[in-house]
Design a protein that fits this description.
mainly alpha, 17 helices, about 70% helix, globular
Length: about 350
């Protein structure tokens, strides 16, 4: 358990010692922290609820040929498994690649925020520890989504579509974010809506069509209960509500406001949906975790008072420390993360 607190305290340390070591400077610190996170996530051993399932994927990849990999579901993820198996590596190389994708995306996104280290701290308890160490494929897809969101903030709609589709090769559910580009567009909206609609339909056909009935049966009809899904959806919904109420005071650039307004609307819309299908909504809500990082990294901007700003930052740190503590102590599946073991030192 101590190791997880080390992961949490690293960004907290940089927040407290120098809040300016973020976007403008401190690149070496970001490289150091990023590398540490990649190794912590990628070299975990027998950590995470789906560890046995990913081992099965890796063993299966040994017997596939290249065409099987490209023609199957989640070809990007299986390609990494395929190459790793062929060169005689282990599942840890697969995890390292996926961890690298996620961490690069997260760090790029955080450094585009007014309080980069705070944005990173917000990501630690759930995104880094639970998702990255538990849902390897979807965490890699999220890494590409983060890169896409940064592109969209700079009005690079085509880049956003590219990153999201690349993410869909690791987890097909990423294609659900493609319509966000059309909704967030502030220029050439009709043209953007048309080509995004076409792209979405093509991506749906390539990634989701064959498995749509299977996904519907497993996630909706079977009504599996995702432990903690309601809590995680509300963790997105609360900052989303704050943003919609206070967006005029958060110094959000106009070109970003439309994007994050829609992201927040989707986060709030997940609240009633999670009671209808907790697992499906919980998995979709993973792509809305950036809402937490975006809003809480700029919440202190609601006031010009330096003391109040510091209080808000400290309150956010304490809130996420509590989130991590509660999860480690009381989450149903937390024991699958404990104790943390790292390859090649695991017993």
């Amino acid at each position: 358990m101590i190791f997880y607190w080390v992961i949490f305290l690293l960004p907290a340390f940089f927040i407290l010692i120098d809040r300016k070591v973020g976007r403008k400077g401190g690149g070496v610190f970001w490289v150091f922290i990023g590398a540490f996170f990649v190794l912590a996530v990628g070299l975990r051993h027998q950590v995470g609820g789906d560890w046995p399932h990913y081992l099965e994927h890796f063993e299966r990849a040994k017997y596939l040929n290249f065409l099987d990999v490209l023609g199957g579901g989640d070809p990007g993820y299986y390609l990494v498994n395929f190459v790793s198996a062929k060169i005689g590596a282990s599942i840890h190389l697969v995890n390292l690649v996926c961890a690298f994708i996620l961490v690069v995306g997260v760090c790029r996104f955080c450094r585009a925020q007014p309080e980069p280290w705070l944005a990173l701290l917000v990501a630690v308890p759930y995104l880094i520890i639970v998702v990255a160490m538990g849902y390897t494929r979807q965490s890699a897809a999220l890494g590409f989504v983060f890169l896409g969101l940064v592109s969209l903030q700079f009005k690079q709609v085509r880049h956003f579509a590219f990153w999201v589709i690349l993410g869909a090769t690791f987890h097909k559910s990423a294609v659900l974010l493609l319509p966000v580009a059309a909704l967030a567009a502030s220029r050439k909206r009709i043209w953007n809506m048309v080509w995004i609609a076409v792209t979405t339909l093509m991506a749906f056909y390539l990634f989701l069509l064959e498995s749509a009935s299977h996904l519907w049966q497993n996630y909706v009809v079977a009504d599996y209960d995702s432990q903690g899904g309601v809590v995680r959806v509300f963790m997105n919904a609360v900052p989303a509500f704050i943003f919609l109420c206070l967006r005029s005071y958060l110094h959000v650039p106009e070109e970003e406001k439309r994007l994050w307004t829609w992201m927040c609307i989707f986060a709030i819309a997940c609240v009633p949906l999670v009671f209808l299908s907790s697992t499906a909504t919980d998995r979709v809500a993973l792509y809305l975790i950036p809402v937490q990082m975006y809003v809480f990294s700029r919440l202190h901007l609601v006031t010009a008072d330096r003391y109040l700003r510091a209080c808000i930052v400290v309150a956010i740190i304490l809130y996420y420390a509590l989130v991590q503590l509660v999860w480690l102590l009381f989450a149903t599946h937390a024991h699958l993360w404990l104790p943390y073991q790292m390859y090649p030192f695991a017993s």
